[in-house]
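hi support,

uploading two proteins for the ticket. first:
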Amino acid sequence: MTFYRTAAAILAAVVFLCGCSENTEKSSVKSETGNSEDTSSDSAVSENEDLCALAQSLSEDMAAGDFNSAVMLFSPELSAQLDESSLRTAWESTVASIGAFTGASETSEEQTGDNIIVKSVLLYEKKGLEVSYTFNSSGEIEGIWLSYRSLPAVPENGDSYTEQAIKIGSFELDGLLTMPNGVEDPPVVILVQGSGQSDMDESIGENKPFKDIAHGLADNGIAVIRYNKRYYQYPELADDSITVRDEIMEDVSAAAEYAGTVCGSGKIIIAGHSLGGMLAPVMCMEDPDIDAMISLAGSPRRLEDIIYDQNEAALKASGIEEELSPQLEALKEELEKISSLSETDTGEYLGVNAQYWRSLNDMDTVKAAESLDIPMLFVHGGDDFQVYADKDFEIWREHLGDRENCTFKLYEGLNHLFMRSNGRSDITEYDIKGNVSGEVISDISRWINGL
């Protein structure tokens, strides 16, 4: 998701056979075992065999409906957890929404201790599918994951801009640079997604708000950088020690460094959406090379406070608030624990590790914003049912409204994606295809070009 999640989960953890898109909750079971001690298995492949070629062959076999060749290479531990029928079911549910198989793409490998992780990428009509295998020293498969990948970027050349594929940071995150044609040293906007794992377009159903924004700003002479979130592209890297810096902030710093090679004397602007908008002041406070900031439906409050409000509003809308009030009280108790986590606390809270929550709660976004003297723009949709105009947006104005470097814009009738609301006030609203409001893009463009 690219917006704040309710009590289900905020950050998608490592999963096995992730049968979902970036737009839905991941609901599957991790199946990865330790190193196998059995080196005599008849299914083990020779150390001299090309594991990349093997992995690609296995992936193509599964795309064609043959799962036995992969299962025959499972280690005893993985075989005890996953049979051919379960593998087939998980695969079919994962590819059901991404169209027909169109071909194979690249493979890559990396050594991790005694194991080798090989990733093979298959191409489908709507999305790429990365199949990640963990091979032990005997050539057996000890772990297998499925995760979606963006299709290879096709550079776009319009009348007003050119789009090219780029890589961001040490993890080489897939991204796009949208450059306005005929503009020397343009300002560069770095788009930062909200919570959860999303692609560079911040895709939600058929909606691609970051693509809309990138093309709209480029039409107005502004360059834009957007890229996949780290754990969207590499879900297998997520573990119980990750923090919000791992998930978002380190890669934003890398994107800002890249932007410096693009803009020349132009300005660098952070534009964060939702959680990205919440963290944007901290990013700018920590990076003196950032010249301006835009918060798109960001909040100055703690995420756990917003989660409580979301759940309370959902119960009221359901008409069964009285029956479910005990669950709301239990949620409140859990959120209170999150608010008071100490360095010694471990475990998970609402499905997210304690270290992540602590790292998020360490971010005093209001204090950071108050310390900044760079231009800041705060925009919000009046019909946003996830981050509230009458609460979150007003808190920004209460703290910063008298500052000359701060500008505030509220758009009546627009939702969390800055698209026209259909009044549903739940996530089914995003099932309907829309586009980011042209008025919002025009206002942002004028603000940036006026810096």
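and the second one:
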Amino acid sequence: MSTFEEGYSRLLDNIGGVNGAYESAGYASNVENAVNSTIEALRNEAAHRVNVSSADYLKGWLAEPWHAETLKASAAARGRSDIWANVPANNGAGDVLYGNAATTLEAQLKYLKSGEETAKGLSNPKYNGMDKIGPSDQLEKIKEAAERLAHKNQLNRPEQAAHYQDTADRASDRLEIDNASSKPLDEKIAKEMANDFRKDGDIDPDKYGLTTENFVEWSDVARQAGQAALNAAIMSAALTAAPHVWAMIREQIETGQIDTNKLAGRFQDVLHGAGTAGLRGGVAAALTVACKTGLMGDALKSVSPTMIGMATTLTLNALDYSIKLQQGMITNQEFAHHCLRDTFVLSTGIFGATVGQLVIPIPMLGALVGNLVGSTLGAVAFEGSNQVVLGLCIESGWTFFGMVSQNYTVSEDVLRQAGYDTFCTHSFNKQSFSTESFSIQSFSTNSLGFTPVRRGVIACNLVGYL
């Protein structure tokens, strides 16, 4: 196998893990940015209102950006880029406008001291038909009060009764659209947050659940892993198929036909490579999302996605080699050699992907080109250094910490070349003879020829006589 082919082969082995890690790191970053935008929006609203509003009024003003921004953070966690929300600055009827690419909705928010007061505030005729949002700890009281007031006014004030019934039917503690929803907010918590802003000018995000792990769910991890696995499989299939397509074109040009038996084998290679890359991409994506969003603890938030992709690929490769070792398909030395090679080539490939992404700032393209270059250079460097190490082992008998076997038994091929007849002990038959009939025949020779026995590599990391 040529050096380029070796590098390309290593690229196909690790592209799944690298792709899954990079893609999921981008997803985690989007969620984190959305959560940070929520905190910033609350901070700006508090700074604008804190000097002119008491905590009882400020809590209502804070509820508006809270629901708008946490809805967008939830949409980011669900992988939705088409869901939007904002707080209008024109003091219109709706406190929050939100929707998706096809829908625009309005919501009115009230955060008053009691459920009945909030129900009355939400039942203003100009809010009819809007989504009506109140504190989560008052929601049942709001619905009960609205139902009661609707019945009470049914005979004397039927129009107002209809407004109360509209509140009873529409009242909620969150904005919802498709699979995204804002975070419910208690009246007491909203007031406490207002007091924190008035006191310190800022809030502790952890105290109010404004962290990525409170928006991302394990179902999001599974979805992102599946998407990354599919993308990795498609990319791997394309890269694996490219050399086969070129080989078929060349075969058609040279012979005028295509060998269907070879075509079936090539198709199997593409399927196997795509499946393996999909597995690596899915596992790397799941680990990256779980770590970077805090689902596996704050300590793992700082783990590099690159390291996750590398560790995933190395682990899955090692499992594959372990199975082959157990089945006797490879030796201990081959197992160690493959693991060491993968570590070295994957490191250079990922370094190349990082540099490539900086040089070519096109999502995934720069990483792909850099990975190919890095993997190829890594394969060249590894094979070169391996030859140097094996040369030292041949000359000195060094085992390179047990990774190179030293075989001092002269092989049968070498013995036959030297003129020795080899035999199997189980088929050797002894014949007796008499010493009286034993005679010695002399011989003479004009020349003496010999072939020196030398040592070299006779198998993977195995040194013996050639």
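thanks. also noticed: Residues 1-30+216-330 form one domain.
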